[in-house]
Each structure stands twice: as C-alpha cells, then as structure tokens.
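Researcher: Please predict.
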Amino acid sequence: MSSADRPATRLATRLAFLVAGFGIACWAPLVPFAKARLAVDDGILGLLLLSLGIGSVVAMLLTGVMSARYGSKPIIIAGGLGLALVLPVLAIASSPVTLALVLLAFGAALGSIDVAMNIHAVEVERAAGRPLMSGFHALFSIGGFAGSALMTLLLSLHLGALACTLICSVLMLIATLIAWPRLLRSTKAQQGLLFVLPHGSVLLLALLCAITFLVEGAMLDWGALLVIGAGLLSEAQGGAGYIVFSIAMTAGRLGGDAVVARVGDHATLFWGSLLAIVGFAVLLTASVAAVAMSGFLLIGLGASNLVPVLFRRAATQTVMPTGLAVAAITTAGYAGILIGPAGVGFVARAVGLPVAFWLLAALMGLVTLSARIVAANPRQTAQPFSPPQRD
C-alpha cells in the first residue's frame, strides 16, 4: 500500500478540510462584536472585511507556486496553525488598522490551507483509485456547521470573545497536530516553471468553479430575501431556505463519492447541474413555502458534487502543473463568492431579484453544456476510477 493510500493519510486530509471550514466559520459570529468594539459603520466594516478576501486571494496564488515546488504538507500545517493562532487576535484587535492587518493574515492562512488541502486531496484520491473528493469537501461543510454552532453557543454562555476564540483555537491546534505526521511528505513537486498563466481547459474549469461558488454565495446572501420578497416566509423564518440548502449540500457530498464512482464525472456534472437548474425553476415559481423549500433542496443536492469533480479534473488535465491548476480554480471560486453576490445585487436592483436568480440558473446551464468537454480528458474517461496499483 502506498503512503498516499493509507487510512491515516485520508484521515489527515479530512482533518485539513475540517479545520479550514471550522476556522472561517468561527470568525462569522465575531463580526458584530468587532463592529461594536471598533465603533465603525457598515461602510468601514465592509472595507475591513475586504482585507480577508485580499489576503486569501494573494495566498491562493502564492500557494500554487509553493506547492508546485515543495509539496502541500508544509503549507497545510502553516495554514492550520495560522488559523488557530490568528483567530484569538481577531477578538482583541483594538483599531481598524489592526483588525485589517489581522484579517489579512487570517485570510492568508485560509487561502493557503484551502489550496494546499485540495492539492493534497487529489493526490490521495489518485492513489486510492476511487472517488474521495466529495467526502473531503463534506468535511469542510461539517467544519463550517461545527465552528459557527460552537462559537455561537460559547458566546451565548456569556463567555468573552477572547475566551471563546481560545477554546476554538485549541481544537484547531489539536486537529492540525494530529494531521501533521500523517500528511504526505511531498506531492509530486514540480521542477519546471513555477508560474504558468491559466489557459486551455483550466480556464474552463475556473469559470465553472466560479459559477458554482457564485450560486452558493447567492443562496447565502440573497436566498432569504427572495422568499421574503415573494411573501412565502416572514423575516424571522427567511433563513430556513439556506439551512435546507446547506443540509442538502452536506448530505450530497457525504454520498457523492459513491455516486461518482458509479456514474462518472460527466454524468455527475451533467445531471447535478441540471438538477440545480430544476431547483431554481421550482424555487422561482413556487407559490407556497413548502415548494420553495424543495427548490432549495434540489439546488443543494444538484450543486453539492460539482466543485469536487472540477477539482478532480484539475488534477487530470495536462496543460498545467496540478498545483497551479488547483490554485487557479480555487482562486476563481473564491472570486465567485466575493464578487458574485455583489453582482447579483446590482442585477436585482436593475431588473429585480427573481430575474437575477433566473440568470444564476442560466449560468448553471453552462456547467450542463460543458460537462462532456470537461470530462473528455485523454488521461481519464467518464468512468474514471480503475483499480489502483499497489506498491
């Protein structure tokens, strides 16, 4: 059995995804406290939060270069430790400039581990000879649930923000230390060019990844307003749709590896995106809340395994080094989350939120139309996983 196909290595990869999801989710409940502590308005807060995105994007681009040369293990460890060590500082930053700098560091840690763990995951999956990527991404979602729930619980117990973050940081440190010796020492480090402009199939993968993440971001930021504006739910109940969407996403990813192993990447992309489009149609034509909730459910299930497949295809393309390709599509996906929801807002202001959501469905149609092209890789067929060779 190769080192990449050991159960301990798969555990370490899952822990990396768990830490990344947990870390970013721990910050979200702290935002109102940071705003009150610094006494800033929404505009200044928005600029401060932009620092997190800038740090993430810059780190993602650099991580692709560093992973191509040195492998993903040291970057995963640095990112996990960075999240754990910087999180408590977010709870005590006493000025806008300080918080901006700390958010920049926090974003850099998040961006680094995000790219590196996906590079590591594609190597582990390749060695296993069967789909694992959906399960890895499910751990990110579970980490997000756990982080936000635990931080909210601790804050509700009237513990100080610093104490809450220290507890969460200890948990991240423990998980990172457990993963440390079990991660692959290197992942086919590249000795050639350290930077290659995204091109060819990688550009298509990046576009599709941006679209899929845009849909996820829009469901978070605009889903509640859509159903409230349609008179289907009250303001107090508006978040129910995103809860259903999130549960469907997580459940879909937990079962996604078995689905991909059975039907292949092409069918997963085609039918998954088509199911999401049907979900949009159900949501946008619903006249009662229960039907709208089924729309959220279908969108979540349909979109759940698209990103894991796109990351897998980044590992099998031949036009770029794997690390640089994964960094490119990760950065594109993050841009979709950061910029996309704002774009939805501009469209909604011009022609209405329902029309903006129909446009999201149309964008998802690009995934459907591109499924065969994405899966037509000379190194891997639509039924991708043959029995692995053992050392």
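Model: The mean pLDDT is 85.
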